[in-house]
Amino acid sequence: MVSNARKSSWVAALAMSLGMAGAAALAAELPPVPEALKKAGVLKVGVKCDYPPDGFLDNQGKPQGIEVNLAKQIAANAFGDAAKTELTCVTAANRVPMLVGGKVDMLIATLGISEERAKVIDFSEPYAWGGSDIVVPKDSKIKKLADLKGKTVIVLKGAWQIGWFESNMPEVKLLKLDNVSDGLQALLQGRGDGYAHDHAILVGLAKNNPRTRLVGELYQIGFRGVGFRKGDTALREYVNAAIKKAYADGHVAKWVKQYVEPDLQPVTIETWNIALAPKS
Amino acid sequence: MSYQFDFAYIWANGPALLGGLLMTIQVSVVSILIAAGVGLVGAAARVLRVPVLSPLIVGYVSFVRNTPLLAQLFFIFFGLPAVGLGLSIYASGVLTLAVWGGAYNVENVRGGFLAVPKGLNEAARALGLGPMHYVFLIAIPVGLRVSIPAMLNTAVSVLKNSAYLQAIGLAELTFVAMEKVASEFRTLEMFASIGVLYLGLVLTLSWLVRRLEDVLQRPFRER
């Protein structure tokens, strides 16, 4: 008969080895941290600061949001410390130059995957999807996209709605401004008949501004990816795995609940599920 | 990844850059001329100590010189419509630059007027010339010649500051470059080429003003 002391130490050894195997299995989900990243000691990410709920500034002026949390989670995976992130505010107009110029090492900035951009940067696997929409003044006669023929539409420099309008509705005049608040201001002052941007940002805008209304006709369905400099394969593979892990561990759903108003949560959580993207 | 400077890209975008250049020239020339006018009128009012106008002009100059141009631009473009004065992008741009340049020109021209020898003022009064005659027949011809280098400085500044107008959507040179960079990402080519173009513009403007100075100095040299 085995003594009690022997039994408990045997159980302890078994538990420990199971635990270690489990930890090893979890760690095996992530590839090794890229050398360049380890040397840098900090994850330099470009994020949006005018795009709730994905990237915006809180009352203390610090970036917050779903994508910001994703960046911090990747840093936590790489360094064990979410604070080892250096977040830089970027806009649609300057995000790719910031990345290519080395000011940031990756972009988690509502960056849509497009052929033109893929010539200059590399993308991760898509992590969210969305469509474009238009916001018009509440009493506007515009009910659908086609009503915009010959009118002026406000867009942001560098946003891919510009390419869509130039190819699909070239008779629309485009007024190109620098950021979301300028776009909204200009719309409210009648400088444009509509403001075209991603549905994700316009939904919140229309909700918080009773003088505006969403047209609701989705066009240009696209996918978001993390941006990397060309050839940065090690970092890209690491981040791909880290994103999968963030989904698997339920972090993404948690962040959506944290930053999105309850009635908008079902729509938002859909856009963070690639499987639900429309096929067209 | 090494960056390949692509001259062909600059050439391919020549028409767009040219369009931006023309808009820059147009906006700058109009603003410089209006600013010169504002400077002249304002300085004359200050020098003649016109009762209500003079302190207002002091306030105007002080405000414009002590606040950032970008803030003034946004105030005119986004702020004025809130009180009912909605101007187009072009009009807002010209107004901002003219107001800004005008403030500096008031001081430039006032300096010129103050440089007119006091003896001329006394002689004018002795001859029975009124203040307006003094301004038009003596102060402006003599004083303005002194102010021209300073007014050239202000004109060059107005030209360079026209780049700020890209923030309100005016399709001048800097806007064209920034928009191309935002969609095609060739930062070095675009900013190098507009740097060269702005340099060319400023050198041309300086040359033109120096020719103007020569013309104006002629009566003084024929003695």
Separation, N- and C-terminal Cα atoms of chain B:
67 Å
- Low-pLDDT windows of residues of chain B: none
CATH topology description of the largest domain in chain A? D-Maltodextrin-Binding Protein, domain 2
Tally of domains of chain B? 1
What is the CATH first-level class name of chain B? Answer: Mainly Alpha
Fourth-tier CATH superfamily name of chain B: MetI-like
Describe it.
By secondary structure, chain A is α/β, with parallel strands linked by helices. In chain A, 40% of the residues lie in helices and 22% in strands. Chain A has two domains: 35-127 and 225-275, D-Maltodextrin-Binding Protein, domain 2; 130-222, Periplasmic binding protein-like II (D-Maltodextrin-Binding Protein, domain 2, 3-Layer(aba) Sandwich), CATH 3.40.190.10. The longest helix of chain A has 24 residues, at 4-27. The model of chain A has no long low-confidence stretch (mean pLDDT 88). Chain B is mainly α and 223 residues long. Chain B has one domain: MetI-like fold.
Element layout with pairings:
The complex is a heterodimer of chains A (280) and B (223).
Chain A: H1 4-27, H2 35-40, E1 43-48, E2 50-51, E3 55-57, E4 63-64, H3 66-79, E5 85-90, H4 95-100, E6 106-108, H5 115-118, E7 121-123, E8 128-137, E9 152-156, H6 161-168, E10 173-177, H7 180-188, E11 194-198, H8 199-208, E12 212-214, E13 219-224, E14 227-229, H9 233-248, H10 251-259, H11 265-271
Chain B: H1 7-12, H2 14-47, H3 53-66, H4 69-79, H5 89-114, H6 118-126, H7 131-161, H8 173-184, H9 187-221
Index terms:
A: alpha/beta, D-Maltodextrin-Binding Protein, domain 2, five-stranded mixed β-sheet, 11 helices, 14 strands, B: mainly alpha, MetI-like fold, flat
How would you sum up this structure in a few lines?
With 280 residues, chain A is α/β, with parallel strands linked by helices. Chain A contains 11 helices and 14 strands.
